Amino acid sequence: MENQQKISKGELMEELLRNYFLNSGYYVVRGIKYKYAGCDITDIDLFLYGRSSSLSRQRINVDIKNKKSPQAFERILWVNGLMKLLNFDACIVATTDQRPIIHSFAQLHNTIVLDGSFLSKLRANKFPNRLTEEELTINLSKHKSYKTFNNKDWRYIYESSKSKLLSEQDFSGFNSSLIFLKYFFEKAITDIQKREDATRMIYLILSHTLIIIDFIIKDIAFLDINEREKKLSDGLKFGNLGQDGVDKIMSMVVQISGNKSANTFLKTLDKFPTNILKEFFSKNENTKNLFNWSKEFENLGYNKIFISPNQIAPPLKGVMSIFLDFLEIERKKFFNIFQKIIQTKIEIPEDNKE
User: What mean pLDDT comes out for the span 90-111?
Assistant: First the structure.
């Protein structure tokens, strides 16, 4: 297993556990930074997201310690604190410790323990045809955004997108993810040397974005279609505050400044093409597929063999097209670029033509 030779023992166990939970049906993200006000607070080894019904979701943080001295008691306390802080539904500790007392202490604190016996079985598993987190981020760190993201490399953008899954699973998180998507759609079109990595980023950020909107929709799934569309429209235009919240703030601005500039601002918001996303995400036949689409986009992003947008399943291509329309990027222009690449790769040499 070539990948296993390139990463540490701890990183290998994180990859093996990620693959285990992926195969168990979860959407899984490895190595998410928990941030507050731009500061890195801590890392979560694995973030698990499950969809059990149209109205319920499950979010779980997993702590992994593949060490001789795993400090299992401390890790159980730590994951519980983080679970409560992030309002998650469950927590898991994966530890090499096999003492029965660890299980009894974990049960006391409603923590699932995957012990040394379980982990040893995982080590026998074969590596799937996926990039490891290290392989992906090494590639991303080679590229920089000199203007749009203030000289940050693509790894930083990717980490920022992942972090939204911890504390910004709301309209503000969704709306800010659209900035990332627009940047990478445009980069894929204009920069042939970075096209493959930019497309992988599109796949991965789309997967994050769809998970965010899936989490939002669970709270409005029971509303009738008109109310649901209103909630989506307000959220897409005004973020977490909604129209009422923005109206109150703008009213205060007008009173303080003594002018009517707020109306101009609100008219500008009305011009945003939010109807495209509102109509798409308000339909039950689309919302019931968000979770599976997220997993499929995640798999495309990590697939060792690069898969062109022209080669992906039609429903996924349709999702990409919706976001292209919203971002006012011509679908044909985007997909035609990859069509030319495919034609170039399969072009028959002159000597072999009949």
Answer: 94
